[in-house]
Amino acid sequence: DAWVATGGADHVVRVWRLPNMGPEGVLLGHTDSVMTLATRPERAGVLFSGGLDRTIREWDLSAMSPLQTFVDVNGPVLALLAPDPHHLFSCAGKSITKWAIATGEAVVGFVCAGHAGPV
Length: 119
Description:
4-stranded antiparallel sheet
């Protein structure tokens, strides 16, 4: 099934079924605004969300339940990218962090010099 997800200032991720945009589910867990969403290219039923609460959450959309939570100590999570089955990248504060999806551990992080504000 095809779906689209939205995250909002209400701290909630909502999932909608395509093509009719009927509500599919609500994902609860963030404690502040949800700023970014990313999908796993090899797993259509998995979604990542990141927010101002400094967390990244991995969700199982078939069960509408959390799989794991990553905590980004660099600041609010403003962007996510899951380019392959093993890694997730987050932008928080002035840093980019590479995460191992299997363990939820930060693999490497680096500061993006030259930016005047968050990346």
